[in-house]
Structure prediction request, 300 residues.
Amino acid sequence: MSKTKKYQCPSCGGDLTVDNDKQMYCCTLCGSTYDYDHFREEQLHKTDGTHLSRKEFGAVVDAYRSSLKTNPHDFSALRGLMLAAAFLKNMDDLVRAGEAKHFSYNSIIVKEVIECAPEEDKEYFKKFARLYEVKKKQIDCNRGIESLHRDRERIEAAMRLTEDTRRDYYIKAGKYGKWHPKAYFIFGWCNTALFLILELIIAGVLDSTGTGGVVTFLVLFGGLTLLIGIGVNFGYVFPRFKIMKEIDTYMEEYKTELSLTEEKLKEHEAEAVELSEEIRKIINDFIWEDEYRITGKTQQ
Prediction:
C-alpha cells in the first residue's frame, strides 16, 4: 500500500491510503474503508456545484448525467439536474423565478429526472415539474396580455385615425357648422323640391294672367334648378355620403374587434392572477419540503 493525502477519512479525519488490489481507500487510524466511487461521486458533486454557480448549464447537465451513471437514484444529482433544466443555479433562483418575466425549461431533462427518480422521490420531482409548468403558463399568459395590450392600442389608434378621416367628409354649411353628408343630401333635395313647388305655383298664377313668356322662363328656371340639385347631390354630396357609410362600417368592425380584445384581456388578466397565486403557494410548500429533504429540518 502507498500513502496518499488527497482524501481524509470522513469518520475520524485520518489520512487515507489506497489499496490498488482491492480498489479501496483505507483509514490508517480507524480502519474504515471506502471504495473509489465514494470520493469520485463527491468530487463530481463539487464540480457540478461549481458549474451551477457559474451558470455553465451545459457542463452542469453533462456532469450530473455522469454522476447518475454511477448512481441513477442520486437525489442531489437529480435535484441539480432539475435546476439546470430551468437554468437555475440554486433554490433562491427558483424563488426569484416566481416573479420573473422570462422563464423557460427543458422538458426533456425534466422528464428524464422524473423517470430516473426512485418512487419515494417521484412526488417531489413531480411538484418541481408542476412548478415549471405553471410558471411557463404564467409567462405565456403575461406575453398574451402584452400582445393584447398592443392590439388594443393598435385598434384604438386606427379608430382615432378613422374618426379624423370621417370628420374630413363632413360638409361645411357656413354658420350652421358642419353637416353629415346624409343630412345635407336630404336637405338639398328638400330645398330643390321646395323651389320647384314655388316655381310651379308662380307659373300657374302667371299662366292664368296670360303672361306666357314669364311662364316659359319659370319652367326653364325650374328645370335648371332641378339639374343643379341633381348635380350637387349626386356629384358632390352622395359620394361623400357613400364614403362615410364605408367609414362607419369600418368603425363598427373596429368596435367589435376592440370589444373582443378587451374581453380576452380580462380573461388573461384573471388567469394571470390565478397562476401567480398558484405559483406562490407551490413555491412556499415546495421550499419547505426541499429544506427538509436537504437539511432534515422543518420550518418553525
About this structure: The chain has eight helices and six strands.
